[in-house]
């Protein structure tokens, strides 16, 4: 299973080649988030992930979003296309996919 989340932001979504720093920042944040999660298995054998800060369970991506949103202190993210500020990577991903859809093609 892929260990990367990168906030759901594909590096190609920005439409520019100079965003390696943003991708590196996302990977570093992924690594920090993963330290606050533990894989679990339900009684029925399904894999789930648990937040070690509050015991919330969910899919890997949902738990990563939860930890980032509720437990990690971060300055936020700036859209590389327009400069809009987002509090978390999921908001930035949604913003780029909606507001800059034409730039992604």
Architecture blueprint of SSEs:
Elements: H1 20-34, E1 37-41, E2 47-51, E3 57-58, H2 60-70, E4 77-78, E5 85-86, H3 89-99, H4 101-104
Antiparallel strand pairs: 1-2, 2-3, 4-5
Question: Could you explain the architecture of this structure?
Answer:
There is one protein chain. By secondary structure, the chain is α+β, with helices and mostly antiparallel strands. 39% of the residues lie in helices and 15% in strands. It contains four helices and five strands, in the order αβββαββαα. It has a three-stranded antiparallel sheet, with helices on one face. Strands 4-5 form a two-stranded antiparallel ribbon. The longest helix has 15 residues, at 20-34.
Summarize the structure.
This protein is of the alpha+beta class. The chain has helices at residues 20-34, 60-70, 89-99, 101-104; strands spanning 37-41, 47-51, 57-58, 77-78, 85-86.
